[in-house]
Each structure stands twice: as C-alpha cells, then as structure tokens.
What does this fold into?
Amino acid sequence: MSAIAVAKKDFRDAVRSRTLLALTALFGLFTVGGAYLASWAAEALEGGAETTLDLIIALQTPAGYLVPIIALVVSYAAIAGERENGSLKFLLGLPHSRRDVVVGKILGRTGVVGVSILVGFAVGLIGLFAFVGSVSLVDYLGFTLVTLLFGLVYVCIGIGLSSLTRSTTKAAIGAFGLLVFFWFAWSILVQLLLYAVEGQLLMEEFPDWYVTLLSLSPDAAYGSALGAVLGESGLAMSGMYGGDELPLAARPWFGFVVLGVWALVPLALGVLRFESIDL
It folds into this structure.
C-alpha cells in the first residue's frame, strides 16, 4: 500500500499543474479540430462524411504528438525534481522504499495523463457525433484504451530518465531530445542506412530489416497496436508496405510487444540506477 499512498499524493500534486491544464485544453482542441477537418475534407472531396475509423485515423496524428508531450511534461521531473529540491529525502524518510516511490510515481503520473487523454477524447467524441452523426463507440473505446497505453509508455520513459539524474534540466533535455529522435532522426537514420546498403531509397519491395527498424519506434508501435485493435491496416506499418509476408516486428499485434519493451527497459535502467545512488 505504500506505493498507492505515494501515487495518491503525487496525483493530487501533479493534476493541479497549470501547464498540464493548458496541454489538456490544447489536446481537446486538436481532437475536435481534427474531427472537423477530416469530416470537412470528406464532404468537400467525396460528398459524404467519413466513417468512425476514418476519423480515428485523422485523430491519431494529434494524439501521436500531444500524448508523448503531455506524458513527458508530467513525468520528467517526478523524481529528479524532488532530488533537486531535497524533498525526496523526506519522502524516503517515511515508510516508503525507493521502489515504492518509483511505482507510486508511475501510477500517479499515469493517472494524470489518463485524465488528460480522457478529457481530450471526450471532446473529440462530441466532435465525432457533431460532424459524423453516428459513431462506433466500440472502435472509439479501443482507440482510447490503446492511447492510454501509449501514454503509460511515455510516462515510464519519463520516470526512467528522471530516476537517472538529480537535475531536472538534464532530465528535460533527455526527455525531449528523445522525442525529437523518435519523431525525426529515427526514420532519417534508417533511410540513410537503406541508401548505404541498397544504393537507393525507392524500390518495389523493401528489405525486411528496413521495415523492422521502422516498426520499432514507440510511435510506429502505437499505430500498429491501433491497427491490431481496430482491424485497420492503414494505422499500422502493414498499411505502408502491404503484403502478407511482413517481418514479425511490422505485424500489427507486435506493436503491443514493442510498446511493452519501451515501457520496461528505460524504467528498469532508471530503477536500477536510482536504487544504487547516494541521495
């Protein structure tokens, strides 16, 4: 129960953040705006409203960018901030182990991110009803649950980084540097490697190792997991490369495995470091 006590206090402290409130409001605006723009484009180009799945595909983009930002803003200073201001020593002076603190921080900050996602998606759901008229609640629930898992992954990454350093500045640089790497550098580096190995970037059939590497970022895994839950290949790596002979990492269900690895590995490294350091 010690970790639960930490989580409750951490949730109460973090949920009052003005930055979080601003990001949650922005997330809500982006979800309803994405629903409106996708519906408007369908009306203009095709003369008819899109299906719920079509609109979910449109909402994946703002979710894919804003959920990691919200999760990292909430989590990067969770432990480093308390080490920096000295309050962590007081916290550990209570009957809490260091592992209790880490688990409690994960639970508390994931709860905060979950509230933000649920508020944003509730606004998006209103937008879907307004612009489409009928919505598959099952599909939308699946989308919401996978996005909550995606938020948990980035909370674990943020807590892991926060456990590795006593400086919030270093934790912030690490967290948002990692975002830039995932969003931009990852695909560029893989494409450079493709050119170095194959001598070209455009080909009828891409090598398995190339598709595998592109599938291993958390953002690609999020799309794959959504594709697995919703049965929509356009959300997954298979939608880009097609065919039935995709490598294991590019199959939709494997997105859950990749997300699990991204949650556990940074967190495990952070916990091991945190348990061995002198505060």
